[in-house]
Design brief:
Length: 313
């Protein structure tokens, strides 16, 4: 057997063992799992970045099978999800794509995997996790409402307010899940890429956050949504209403990021220390509406150009 094939098999066996150990810890050790769950995909990513796609797929399949044998079917969803994440991250590194491509491809892979898993759980196991979560949250709010009413004589939320709040929550759930997937993907990539770099791999880098610029077309999408909200006024609960609600939420988050990026850009242009940047970022969170307007203004009127001009003078 050639030496490189022996090395590939040995490395693959080591990565399968490491993947299984991290998965077992994340499944059965509650406190430590908060940290280890971010690194489950690391062994697969490392292997996938070094060897061919066919070898990596084989390691992914073996990792999932071994995980089932050790952790049972309870660990199957986590094993599949993080094995796929590791495969995608490693494959993108091996093919030398950009970091934004790595981020988007990993995020969409996770989103598709979660969607397929959700459909399977609903269709075949009659278990709607999202619906159960909303129902349990509603019951918790109702009990809290009753307790406060028994103490003070007045409920903080009326029945209509609770219904409106949870109906809205249910309608924006697709967007919330999507944003959580992107946040989770960003965290996994951020903690694993530095380790992969230490292992001798050439990993891509993001451009500085201060240089984040949304496409100018985002403003036209926002104006279109605003126009539909003002003039069409779709009825609550209809398909158009749900689409507008979710798109508005997504655009608000994007403009907020644009606003925070502008704050980073201004601090950098002024040459202020990093602690000012950290304080400015934290202060932006309670001022989300103002920061969102700042992002819209930056995209529409090129505030960065004005800041750069003032700095040069």
């Amino acid at each position: 057997m050639p030496e490189n094939q022996t090395r590939r098999i040995t490395h693959g066996a080591m990565m399968v063992a490491l993947f299984t150990i991290l998965l077992a810890i994340s499944t059965y050790v509650p406190v430590v799992s908060i940290v280890t769950i971010c690194f489950i995909s690391l062994p697969i990513a490392w292997y996938s970045a070094k060897y061919s796609r066919s070898s990596s797929v084989f390691v992914v399949i073996v990792s999932i099978i071994i995980s089932i044998l050790i952790g049972g079917f309870l660990s199957l969803p986590i094993a599949i999800l993080f094995a796929i994440i590791g495969f995608v991250i490693g494959d993108v590194i091996r093919t030398k794509k950009s970091k934004i491509f790595l981020f988007m491809s990993t995020a969409f892979t996770v989103l598709i995997s979660i969607t397929v898993g959700y459909i399977i759980s609903v269709k075949f196991f009659n278990m709607d996790v999202l619906k159960q979560a909303i129902t349990s949250t509603r019951e918790s709010y109702q009990k809290s409402n009753e307790i406060v009413k028994s103490i003070t004589g007045q409920a903080p939320f009326s029945t209509e307010q609770l219904n409106t709040m949870f109906n809205t929550m249910q309608m924006v759930m697709p967007t919330v899940v999507t944003l959580l997937v992107f946040i989770m993907t960003f965290i996994v990539i951020s903690v694993n890429l530095p380790l992969l770099r230490r292992f001798g791999l050439e990993v891509p880098k993001f451009a500085p956050f201060r240089d984040l610029r949304l496409p100018r077309a985002t403003l036209w999408y926002y104006l279109a949504i605003l126009t539909m909200t003002l003039f069409i006024k779709p009825e609550a609960g209809t398909f158009i209403y749900i689409v507008i609600l979710n798109l508005s939420f997504i655009l608000s988050v994007l403009f907020m990021l644009q606003g925070i990026s502008l704050i980073h850009f201004y601090v950098y242009q002024q040459g202020w220390p990093k602690w000012v940047l950290i304080v400015g970022t934290f202060l932006a969170l309670p001022l989300i509406k103002f920061v969102t307007l700042l992002g819209i203004a930056d995209l529409g009127f090129n505030i960065r150009g004005l800041i750069s001009g003032m700095t040069r003078k």
